[in-house]
Amino acid sequence: MTTAPAKPIKLVVACALIDADNRVLLAQRPEGRKMAGLWEFPGGKVEQGETPESALIRELEEELGITLPARCLAPLTFASHAYEDFHLLMPLYISRTWEGDPEPLEFQALKWVRAARLRDYEMPPADLPLIPILQDWL
Ligand SMILES: Nc1nc2c([nH]c(=O)n2[C@@H]2O[C@H](COP(=O)(O)OP(=O)(O)OP(=O)(O)O)[C@@H](O)[C@H]2O)c(=O)[nH]1
């Protein structure tokens, strides 16, 4: 019997930013990248030497221009999804508090979305199981 070779696990951290109207921030992936045009939670890969929290704080600063102290991040849930060439493991944090107005520095667009409307936005397959969890929570 043969077993398929294990895919590398890619550790990506992401955050559901929630505004005063209880809407969640979705970001549209830029042109020219894999899954361009899909809507995702801001975040990115954990690099060597980083904790998940420090990676997320760095990504939110680079991608959105916001400052978010680690104490403002709470763990919400995670995604575990087999893509073709890697297995994605993505802790999803949640936050209601940060400094600055999110700007689409590395995205095509940003959108504040009500929980009930999340399915109107096409998201990467790994994110689909996260939607009902967020809807229950919000
Ligand atoms: N930030 C973020 N990434 C997500 C989400 N859902 C999801 O499948 N991903 C995947 O997680 C990976 C994030 O890596 P990345 O931010 O460094 O983006 P990337 O496309 O440049 O990755 P690459 O450098 O391997 O090509 C991508 O493969 C992206 O498709 C999500 O909601 N937020």
UniProtKB/TrEMBL annotation:
Family the UniProt entry places it in: Belongs to the Nudix hydrolase family.
Domain Nudix hydrolase: 8-136
CDD domains to which the protein is assigned, alphabetical: NUDIX_MutT_NudA_like
Protein name: 8-oxo-dGTP diphosphatase
Substrates-to-products reaction catalysed: 8-oxo-GTP + H2O = 8-oxo-GMP + diphosphate + H(+); 8-oxo-dGTP + H2O = 8-oxo-dGMP + diphosphate + H(+)
The EC number(s) this enzyme carries: 3.6.1.55
Class in the EC hierarchy, top level: hydrolase
Alphabetic keyword roster: DNA damage, DNA repair, DNA replication, Hydrolase, Magnesium, Metal-binding, Mutator protein
Organism: Dichotomicrobium thermohalophilum
